[in-house]
Amino acid sequence: QVQLVESGGGLVQPGGSLRLSCVASGSIFSINAMCWYRQAPGKQRELVASSVSGGSTNYADSVKGRFTISRDNYRNTVYLQMNSLKPEDTAVYYCNVNARERRDPLKVNNYWGQGTQVTVSS
User: Fold this and answer.
1) N or C: which end of the chain has fewer CB within 10 A?
2) Which of 105, 97, 107 is CA-nearest to residue 5?
3) Contact 28, 99 (CB under 8 A)
4) pLDDT (tens digit, 9 = 90+) per residue, 57-110?
5) What confidence score (pLDDT) does residue 53 get?
6) CA pseudo-torsion sign 107, 76, 72, 80
């Protein structure tokens, strides 16, 4: 079993900054990728940023230049630094981890956090 614990969401004014954290724990054999998704009311869940093994990162066009994803591999933690926040960034942000468990290391699974609310408003 792998558990994801998210933190850092909240209410900020436009132009402000926020840093999200996601810690993966449990019987982890290996982690292939750690990602951040978001879902605004009435919209589909979208991939915001991803970090795969090897250090490669990718971002949605809407957040390029403003958001930065980073990882602490030793602590199995992924961060999302969000700067110059806009009202359209308002959404529930979800952490997603692609990993293998020690009990069954040949099987790869996706794990989701419970989500954290980010609200950008004056």
Assistant:
1) C
2) 97
3) yes
4) 999 999 999 999 999 988 999 999 999 999 999 999 999 999 999 999 999 999
5) 84
6) positive
**Two tokens at 19?**
């840093």
Which tokens hold the place of 118?
A: 């980010």
DSSP one-letter string for 42-57: TS--EEEEEEETTS-E
12 contacts 19 by C-beta, under 8 angstroms = no
Q: Specify the pairing of strand 10-12 against strand 116-120.
A: parallel
Spatial CB neighbours of 59, under 8 Å, sequence gap ≥ 6: 48, 49, 67, 69
- The helix, strand and coil proportions of the chain, stated in percent and rounded to the nearest 5, come to 0, 65, 35
* Residue 55: DSSP 8-state: S
Two structure tokens written together for 52: 């795969």
CA dihedral 82, 41, 87, 118 (to 10 degrees): -40
